[in-house]
Amino acid sequence: MKYLKNPEEAKDAVQQIFLKAIMELHKYEVSYFSSWIYMIAKNHCLMLLRNRRLAISVDLVAEPLIEKEDGDPLKNDALLKDLEEALKHLNKEQKICIRMFYLERKSYQGIAKETGYSLLQVKSYIQNGKRNLRLLLEKKLNKFDD
């Protein structure tokens, strides 16, 4: 509850955490079970929160922006424009990899083959590009909130 602030999400997280603990326990020598389970729970919750924040940019890039639940095509157009603007601010490699992966639906291997980047470089460019997109979009949203 401390991290997630939503009772239903917290209940789901507890189930996932204990399932993970059961599956992972045999892999480690656990001296202090309570500390170990606490760290698993904390990391799980932080991962959920991080994924929530990434949803701003990743969902916009990963899904074709057909009308969302709110059904407001003007809002979607504004989001697309913001995303296009944010893409312009990425470095060349990140921009290429993000476009190929999300818009052209190419695999990491396909991008590596086509661009000449290594597989690790492609993964890194996509990961860093998503983070940079999120930061750029959050910065733009925060300007409007001030």
Sheet-strand content, in percent, reads under 5%
Distance between the termini: 29 Å
C-alpha geometry:
extended
Mean pLDDT: 78
Whole-angstrom Rg: 19 Å
Instruction: Give a quick account of the main beta sheet: strands, pairing sense, barrel closure.
Output: none
Outline the secondary-structure elements.
Blueprint (H helix, E strand, L loop, with lengths): L6 H18 L8 H30 L10 H16 L3 H12 L4 H8 L3 H27 L1
Helix pairs in contact: 1-2, 2-6, 3-6, 4-6, 5-6
Overall description:
The chain has 146 residues and is mostly helical. The chain has six helices and no strands. It has helices at residues 7-24, 33-62, 73-88, 92-103, 108-115, 119-145. Helix 3 (73-88) packs across helix 6. The chain is extended, with a radius of gyration of 19 Å.
